Amino acid sequence: LGGRQRGPLSRQVRGTGDSSALSKSSAAARGYVRDRFVALLAGRRRRRAPLVHRGYYVRARAVDHCVRDFLLKTQSCARTQILSLGAGFDSLYFRLKDMGLLSHTVVCEVDFPNVACQKAALIKGIKELSSLVGDAGGEGLGAIAFSGKDYKLLGVDLSELSKLEIALQEAGLDKEVPTLFLAEVVLTYMENSRSDALVQWAADCFSQACFVLYEQMHPEDPFGRVMQRHFNQLNSPLHSLAQYPDHEMQRRRFLQNGWSECSVMDMNEFFTFCVPEDEQRRVQALEPFDEYEEWHLKCSHYFILTAAKGMKPSWTPLLLNVTVPCGDGPVSVAGSITAVACGMHSEAAGLRRYGHHSALIKPNVILTTGGFGEEDGQHRRMRNFHVLIKHEGCWRAGCVKKENSGKRWDERLYHTVSCLSNSLALMVGGRTSPSNAALGMLWLKFPDSSNALDSFTVELVNPQTEPAAFRWRHSATEVMFRGEKYLFIYGGRSATQPVLGDWHFLHTEELSCTVIPVEGPVPEGRHSHSACTWRGGVLIAGGLGAAEQPLGSVFFLREIEHGFQWQTVETHPPLIPRYSHTAHVHEEKLLLVGGVWFHSSSVPGITVIDLMTGLCTDYMISVEHLEWPLMLHNHSSIFLSDEKELLLIGGGGNCFSFGTHLNTEPVSLNLSNILTSH
Q: Where is this region: Disordered (predicted)?
């Protein structure tokens, strides 16, 4: 929705409202919300991505939840009011009227004068809209652009409070009846002194009021920096973020400006605890979807706030009979590790990607394949393989020559590559799109001895088809059983199953699956987890479960005499649930790197789990020496145990509607201090 900024910036702010209306219309067209009016008000149509649909769904669901709660609580009142600030081309009034929910409620919308005039013209020109409103006359009186019996449309700049007061008086609003204020991404476009004055004015002037605010937060983490950059480029900066960056500061803002109660919830919390499970499943099944990280990050950077004075709040967690864990509290960290860019500059262009895989194929030689990234001046699924070679203490990157390139490898994402010898690796699974994952396996053959960038080649060889490989976001980990080498393929998802919980033992020479008995408590299905070889078995950590919720469990698949056995690894304090991380084992310690979790106040750094004691210790990654946001999801990492060096390659994603972010170049972390301190 449009924002409030006087002067030349108002045009750019109004543009955000136009974009919002188109996104809401697209979400309605795909069945996310029931709204036959939004398309009439948006005018033209534009198809948005599934990620944007989900974002606008949870926004609409949260606001509607608060509005309906207000109407329910005040249904015994003779009269109530809804005052929508910066309403833009929103369809709220028409939906409520169509459902018969406005028998004693007046809806008053406020926006810039020219926006109000445009909307008034639309209403008058579309019979389906005008017949719902009726026409009580009064247009042209002061700021009134349209007037119906229970609908007023006012053209006023919200930053001019004196003019707003006069307009509301002309429209007949009563300061003594219960009033709901709505502000969807509105106050943040105003200077803080003006938006605070508006919040204070609403509390001072209305004796019984609720205020519902939907806005952004957490500006300084990597996603927040990309979000801010997007709005700055639109010449619509988010002013609230500097002074009110999180839950608590927003809550204090309202309590210090005249409101007696205030509750705040981020959108991950709202979707998890306030949307019924059957509705969650309905939404999750509407479209092929594979942008979980960006969905959860978007939701952790937006909140719904309700404040009240003189009446019960429109909504609080207590009223919903749910206990919401505080995802905004600080995560206890034992220290920090400094991230240092590898200094490759132009050489690293081919490594700007996400959803790829990197494998250490021989000492100081890393092969990176697949993913989505930057190639030939455009963003696309990556055609080329790249190699990183460490020479005289410095990493250098280059493009790999592919032999027998007529063999299709399908430019896949979210696959695995397992190095089986100094000259052979096996690529398993992956997808081209969320509806196509039948990509199978591919041998990668490379020279046994060459470590030169300019002569490094990879030959592609298609083996026979193995249905177990038709998956993505899975793991493939080397295990030993009775002296034979297998790849343990576990979890992931497919085009028909959003989460897989099965596993297969793939014999690495025969490339066929073998049945090996497995006993013990079976882990719940997951994808985007981590898997590491340890003591001949596999350590599985985290992942995203069937309800699209991060998991905090750790399991060890241990070899026993007649097969394998699942064992739970207890951690203390409990591991914070996460997914889309990477992992490595070093001397009885499991290292978890990055990922996505629901603690919106911070991003995951490195977690060290002592596999002997279960002690779980978190470290933050210091990025003060990097000139760009470091996003540690959809990345790959390589641990060089002798040097205790961790190399982070790629990472990032499509940041909602804010653009695609790709980490600029590989980053090195020296883990000597944290590994010797344990």
A: 1-22
> Could you tell me the domains of the chain?
28-309 (3.40.50.150), 333-675 (2.120.10.80)
Give residue-wise pLDDT tens across range 172-214.
Answer: 999 999 999 999 999 999 999 999 999 999 999 999 999 999 9
pLDDT band for position 408 (cuts 50, 70, 90): low
The β-bridge partners of 637 are: 648
> 510-569 pLDDT, tens per residue?
889 999 999 999 999 999 999 999 999 999 999 999 999 999 999 999 999 999 999 999
Length of the chain: 678
Strand order through the sheet with 401-403: 401-403, 457-461, 441-445, 424-428, 416-421
As a whole number, the mean pLDDT across the chain is 90
Task: Quote the percentage of the chain above a pLDDT of 90.
Answer: 76
Spell out the residues 6+ positions from residue 406 whose beta carbon is closer than 8 angstroms to its own. none
| pLDDT tens, position by position, 109-164 | 999 999 999 999 999 999 999 999 986 666 667 799 999 999 999 999 999 999 99
What is the spatial distance between Cα 485 and Cα 480, in angstroms, rounded to a whole number? 5
Buried b or exposed e, range 568-607, using 16+ CB within 10 angstroms: ebebeeebbbbbbbbbbbbeebbbbbbbbbbbbbbbbbbb
Rounded distance between C-alpha atoms, residue 388 and residue 397, angstroms: 4
Beta strands at 179-184 and 209-216: parallel, antiparallel or unpaired? parallel
Determine the residue type at 396: R
Give dist(CA 362, CA 359) in Å, integer: 9
Number of H helices, E strands in the chain: 15, 39
Instruction: Report DSSP state, residue 588.
Output: T
Query: What is the number of other CB atoms lying within 10 angstroms of the CB of residue 625?
Result: 10
The answer to whether the peptide bond before residue 629 is cis (omega within 30 degrees of 0) is no
Tokens 């299709």 map to which residue?
408
Could you give the CA distance from residue 49 to residue 141 in angstroms, rounded to a whole number?
42
From residue 138, alpha-carbon distances to 141, 143, 149, 154 in Å are 6, 10, 10, 11
**Strand ranges inside 89-178, DSSP E:** 105-111, 144-147, 151-155
